[in-house]
User: Fold this.
Amino acid sequence: MEPTRFVLEHNQRLSSSLLWGCQRAFYERQGIEAWRQGHIPNFITSNPVIGRAYAQVVLGWMRDWCGASRGETGQPFYLIELGAGAGRFAFHFLEAFRRLHARSQLRDVAFRYVMTDLSERNLEFWLSHPPLQPFLEEGLLDVARFDAEHDEQLVLRRAGTVLAPGTVANPLAVVANYFFDSIAQDAFTLRDGVLHECLVSVSSPRPEPEVEAADLLAQATVSFEDHEVRGAYYGDAELDSILEDYRERLGDTTFLFPSTALRCLRRLQRLSGDRLLLLSADKGHASEDELTDRSSGVSLVRHAGAFSLMVNYDAIGRYFRLRDGYVLRPIHRHVSLHVGAFLLGQPPDGHGETELAYEDSIERSGPDDYSLMLKRMEQHHEEMTLEELLAILRWSGWDSGLLITVFSPLMAHAEEASEPMRQEVCWAIQQVWEADYPIGGEQDDLACHLGMLLYVMERPEEALVFFDHSLRRYGEEPATYYNQGMCHVDLRQDARALECFERALALDADFSQAREMLAKLQSGG
Assistant:
């Protein structure tokens, strides 16, 4: 006998569903833990490659707007990131942008990046997180709470500045990576030219589960039912215009509609004084042809405690064009990630620098290509030479996640490498360490991996530095103390080695290698 299920809502408009309340509660409750525990996928939008690509586009966009001038005196150009999460993208963007900006003709033009999120816990984390402190202290970075469903303005926590319509002097840039897929949307079906809304019903094993219940989304059954739309659905000229255009053009299909995202962008447009750059990366549909002949219905992708939907970037593009805006998207069809640029306002000489930067950094060899090639490389990295492994690390912008992936062959090659090649590996190790953005709780101990690489290349003193980093960052581990002990043995520091092996055994009494080394040292061997 199947267990009884209780209907929590029946035939509700999707954007008004209780599902979104569960989503908000999850992010506010979890804060940074959602990323520490790996609940939320984010690597594809939070790596050095996409950070560098966006930095190039933003600098090109600033060049277009500055022209012969240097922006509005006394105010910076602002870039607002929606749903900044763990802050990893912001870190990679700022690392790249600071270098590019300092070497450009706009080096005297002020710029400030604003990380935003719904969760106060995330803001507190950013303000105290060591990798972000240099940017905060330099005035390149600030933070603000922002609710995409309601807020009209932002209050910067460090500067105290209020960004509101009429107060922002220069054009505004906005980043929204893996964001629009997690805020409220609506869903529609077209059959024989008739538009239907896909109304959602939600049932649960419990009759009155709290919205904050961590397991509600995991246990809920979600279903959809089509109901014919009569009249103007939104009572909003722009949104209804896009819907009507779809009704006339798409044919039989089911599609999502980013109603909350469009209203949020409208508020940001007012904030920007109609001069806006939106850079957004997500899984989604970028063109009209990608929306046609979709008969599979609405599909929620569930994560641990949260969910996401595809993003209708075609609708976002139509909204920008209705406002005399401009859309940049790759000519080729994306595989894993669509990265689009949406522009409002007309710089003195057009968007030439923005277009060029987008073409070079995103269309020709962008984040989607990087993700695709990494998946292929992961299947064959055991066959790669040391030179090839170092080349792929350089290409990645010294991504620590990639180093962990290729660690086994890299270590094998480094142990047998010539001294000049070992020096190349040592330089790569330092670059990877400096480019890393730890958030705590990661499963892979980067510092220990780097220490092991240095140890097999006969650099025990340098290896000890990273084993110390490992103990501070990841806590006491018997293997780390054992590795430290081996470094001290090589350095003929027997007393220090004894301490390390004893500590390893105190943490793990069955650690046979540590016991053997301890006995050998005690016997004078």
Q: What stands out?
A: The longest helix spans residues 48-66. The mean pLDDT is 90.
